[in-house]
Amino acid sequence: MLTPRRKLVIAAAGLTALLACQPPTQFEVVMSTDIECSKLRGVAIVAGSPGEVSTKDPATVNAFCEMGGQVATEASLGSVMIVPSGERDAKVGVRLVAGVDEKDAETCVKDLQAGATDAAVDCVIARRSIAFLPQRPFALPIALTERCVGKVCATGETCIEGECRSEEVDPEQCLTSEGCGDEVLYLHGATTKRRVFVTSKTMFGASIGGLTKADALCQKLADDAGLRGTYLAWLSTDKASPASRFKKDGPGWALVDGTLVANDWADLTDGSLQHAIDQTEKGASAPTTSACSETMTPVWSQTTADGTFAYAGEPTASDPKWDCGDWTSVPGTSQNNWGDAGASDGGWTRLGNCNTFGVACTNNLAALYCFEQ
């Protein structure tokens, strides 16, 4: 049993003597959870090279769980000291697997090793990959959260607050009294993908209220779904568009379940997507409306595949804008170019095969695309 005062020492592949008269080369994994202790059925702890922790048997299984962590809803699970067995700046992988409700930690590990399709049911998996800092000990807090129960992330990723993020940790970020917990991992260069979703809410084009209100709607839906980050709507007027408003550097975009949509801005705007943006902020299917047919998933856009404003023809002073009056009013001639959430070619943002979507601003409903920045 582990306790906050009694720490287990695990070597990456076997214990090694610590140098005398110098600070130890080691780090302390401080474990916590927001899952009720009565529901938690042990935590299996594995440490070793990053490539072997997914198949290696646990070094120990911890059954300790006691309320009284940093916040009222956080329980302490004790801590584990990790020391190197070889090079003192070597990289090490750490995996925690917790059992919840009907499944204990040992069963979770066995199911994961066997590749069972439902292996993660009633299990929480947290992974970290980090290098030792010679003669510089530090803390590595890892939280096993309820939002990660049943969540499976790709190789090289871990679940943080229900989202898949890179498991890679820069140890230099850990040299504070608090160490480098989930928040540091989330915020400082650890994300592998930004999120993108189609809104579960549909609206009339005239009722959006402009780009600012569209952005606010995206942000509210993301916040309500527990998605961290800042979100903007993929929506254009002749004055502003995603090409002028979005951050173009950084990682690409994925659906909320981790499915890749685009590797980066260039990939997003090259005329096709890796996968259609067909999931809502809650991971559900894109909403359909009767605007075109019962199988269509229309999305307000007025944006070309390269992220710029979609004029009706050539951008001239007399050319109709077709943006529902900047998404705030409805001039009599206002029309709209729209996208289809079921498409992965250029039609995802500008589809022109639905004649009934002509004068659309007050007569038809559509959703929005929301992109994390």
Descriptive account of the structure:
This protein has 373 residues and is an alpha+beta fold. The protein has two domains: 184 residues, no CATH class; 179 residues, Mannose-Binding Protein A, subunit A (Mannose-Binding Protein A, Chain A). Strand 10 and strand 11 form a beta hairpin. The relative contact order is 0.12.
Mean pLDDT: 81
- Radius of gyration based on Cα positions: 25 Å
- SSE series: EEEEEEEHEEEEHEEHEHEEHEHEEE
Terminal-residue CA separation: 43 Å
Query: Structural class of the secondary structure composition?
Result: alpha+beta
Low-confidence stretches: 1-6, 13-20, 187-191, 355-359
**Main β-sheet description:** 5 strands, mixed
Q: Give the total of domains.
A: 2
Strands, count: 20
What's a concise summary of this model?
The protein is α+β, with helices and mostly antiparallel strands and 373 residues long. Helices cover 12% and strands 26% of the residues. The protein folds into 2 domains: 8-191, no CATH class; 194-372, Mannose-Binding Protein A, Chain A (Roll), CATH 3.10.100.
